[in-house]
Amino acid sequence: MSGADIREFSRPMTGPALVPLIDAIEAGEKPVVAAIEGMALGGGLELALGCHYRIAHSKAQLGLPEVTLGLIPAAGGTQRLPRLIGFPAALDMIITGRRVSAGDALKLGIVDQVTERNAGEVAVAFARSVVDCPLVSRRLSTWPPLCPADLDNILQMALARAWQRGRGALAPVACVQAVQAARLPYSQGMQQEQKLMSMLFASPQARALQYCFFSQRAVGKWSMPNGACWDNSTARPIRKAAVIGLGTMGRGIAVCLVLAGIPVIAMETDEKQLEAARRVVMALLEKEVQKLAVGLHLGLIHFTLEQRYLREVDLVIEAVFEDLALKKQLFAELSSVCHPDTLLCTNTSQLDVDQLATATSRPDLVVGMHFFAPANKIKLLEVVFTSRSSPEAVATAMQLGKWLGKVSVAVANCPGFVGNRMLRPYVEQAGFLLEEGATPEQVDSALEHFGLAMGVFRMSDLSGLDVGWRVRKAAGLTGPGVPQGQLLQTQQGYRYSPLADLICQKGRLGQKTGCGWYLYEGPGGHMARPDPWVHAFLEEYRRVHGLQPRSIGQQEVLERCLFALINEGFRVLEDRIVMDPVALDVIYVLGYGWPAHTGGPMYYAGEVGLPRVLGRLEYYQRVHPDIPHLRPSALLRQLVAKGSPPIHKWMWHIEEGSSRL
Ligand SMILES: CCCCCCCC(=O)CC(=O)SCCNC(=O)CCNC(=O)[C@H](O)C(C)(C)COP(=O)(O)OP(=O)(O)OC[C@H]1O[C@@H](n2cnc3c(N)ncnc32)[C@H](O)[C@@H]1OP(=O)(O)O
Ligand SMILES: NC(=O)C1=CN([C@@H]2O[C@H](COP(=O)(O)OP(=O)(O)OC[C@H]3O[C@@H](n4cnc5c(N)ncnc54)[C@H](O)[C@@H]3O)[C@@H](O)[C@H]2O)C=CC1
């Protein structure tokens, strides 16, 4: 039982209320044994906690995921669980919403017995064995709370953790407050639980998080402009895969494949690189084995320099340097080495997948599988299809992503695909704000206050500033031979901020060099500190270019960065790079640390109000006519003209045939 039907939350609810039902079961004179198979989540676990005993199958999973939907467990979960397993363990489960295995549930004391057999049959036998035992001590609501001496401290720390993890989300904080009420007699605690739930139930955050839940499932029902879609395309089985290039990304991808039980051929260019990769990959795998407490066949991965092993694989994922010529050459080689049916996938973050496809003998079997760093942790996968990708190839990549535990989103090929394409105007605005008077920490703090996991400059330092520098050089925006613009700097006719290039020229590439937009403890450090050198550098830059610095407020930072990103999102929709705006929200929430409690950038635009987004873009465009990314997209204008329809109707307003494919 996985809890409430979430779709009901936006409709008037019918049927008996859960709390009196659970109370009645608990108060009954007949012993009730919960037999748990599969899932006991949310209301499902709360019902089980109202039973007198709990027997779980070894494969069962238990949890209270309400917080991920913007809610708290409100059928007694916040009152019974701390009484059963103590405050610290209950707080952990309720604030994170994480699921625990039956084995862990036994250790925690949530279940009385774990079985490999049919849980129902075992529960019946168990019930017979306890039929004469008194039930008084089995009713959790009557248990006195297990208050340790340092409970105040535990609650304080939990509250701090909830604020920090939540990044503005209300539900984690409400979870702590509800659990805190478990120190009170049960009936008073329940009143507090109900009060907090009523506050959250109709909140915009809960609606946004529930939208995220359904969006992450909706993207599985992918379609392509040619009519191919998830229910008319068949995925191929992947019995063996290869990863070529075992750098930052390739290592993480190899780990994902092995954890999913897929044998992997892992390839590098030379023995030294191969050895370095082997050490890291094996260490990561061993850590996972310990964490998951599962048996994993570490022999599933074969490290090699020899291409002949590629003959046996069903799918290759290429993750070599971001260099089109190198990748094209490799794809041409793969065409002759691999079996003619082998799928050839690239992890490129922005190169033209169509061009790579043309370098092969099987363009229909070429797709992008764009993982996000760290690939073994981030749950997002962009599956990039070209005009020639076969439905079977797309279906296989989508299915493989799901098998690896990712949420896969099918997107058409275009520069930067979806995520990185929308990121460009956002990063660009941040650079302009520095020119106009802001500091990196002011910009980042506004964005982090909004709820982004990391501000733009901290994020750039983490990924490495040379990544974007290389892209800008390849695009002819900077580098030797490119004429430097006048005031304000311009390139290719538009405003261009060279600040990031200048920082790179100083050898400041971010965390890896110990400094970038911030200062770190040393190369590879993580603690970002404001850097007086950067402040002086910015002041000097403004002085040289005659820029009068002005004070820039939080609102302007948010509007310019976020609305520019959203505006590009509308352009992505116009170009039909995806078939549904929910895809953009899923990509941003799962791949870019966008706060889930705002639904994602496009949902957020709807909540702010499309006329407001349009109005502010028009305003900033008047002030900065040389920044094309601030020019409102045609789709945004059209939607506002049509009265700002809800997000699920946006695509109706795009003309048929506007697809870029
Ligand atoms: C003052 C008012 C007081 C109200 C008190 C109410 C108190 C409560 O009772 C509170 C609650 O329980 S809130 C609900 C808590 N439960 C959850 O969050 C579980 C959500 N579901 C899952 O984790 C996975 O779907 C699950 C693990 C279950 C299955 O995963 P799979 O990967 O096998 O399958 P999915 O692709 O995720 O799902 C299959 C289809 O089922 C839909 N769905 C799943 N859970 C749902 C749920 N709880 N409600 C509605 N629809 C749900 C899912 O959308 C998908 O649908 P389709 O895409 O159409 O196939
Ligand atoms: N680093 C990131 O955050 C992300 C990178 N990507 C993409 O993933 C790809 C790889 O990026 P990183 O892992 O960051 O690069 P990296 O520089 O860390 O690793 C590349 C690896 O490929 C190896 N290599 C080069 N040529 C090879 C060949 N012919 N055969 C076998 N191995 C070869 C190199 O020895 C190196 O170990 C790039 O296309 C990049 O754009 C995609 C998403 C995120």
From TrEMBL:
GO biological process: fatty acid beta-oxidation
Gene Ontology molecular function terms on file: (3S)-3-hydroxyacyl-CoA dehydrogenase (NAD+) activity; delta(3)-delta(2)-enoyl-CoA isomerase activity; enoyl-CoA hydratase activity; NAD+ binding
Pathway recorded for this protein: Lipid metabolism; fatty acid beta-oxidation
Entry keyword Manganese: no
EC number: 1.1.1.35, 4.2.1.17, 5.3.3.8
Localization of this protein: Peroxisome
Source domain of life: Eukaryota
Keywords from the UniProt entry: Fatty acid metabolism, Isomerase, Lipid metabolism, Lyase, Multifunctional enzyme, NAD, Oxidoreductase, Peroxisome
Domain (3-hydroxyacyl-CoA dehydrogenase NAD binding) ranges: 240-413
Record domain 3-hydroxyacyl-CoA dehydrogenase C-terminal: where: 416-520, 557-643
Gene Ontology CC terms: peroxisome
The reaction(s) this protein catalyses: a (3Z)-enoyl-CoA = a 4-saturated (2E)-enoyl-CoA; (3S)-hydroxyhexadecanoyl-CoA = (2E)-hexadecenoyl-CoA + H2O; (3S)-hydroxyhexadecanedioyl-CoA + NAD(+) = 3-oxohexadecanedioyl-CoA + NADH + H(+); (3Z)-hexenoyl-CoA = (2E)-hexenoyl-CoA
Self-association state and partner proteins as the record states: Monomer.
Family: Belongs to the enoyl-CoA hydratase/isomerase family. In the C-terminal section; belongs to the 3-hydroxyacyl-CoA dehydrogenase family.
Protein name: Peroxisomal bifunctional enzyme
Species whose genome carries this gene: Paramormyrops kingsleyae
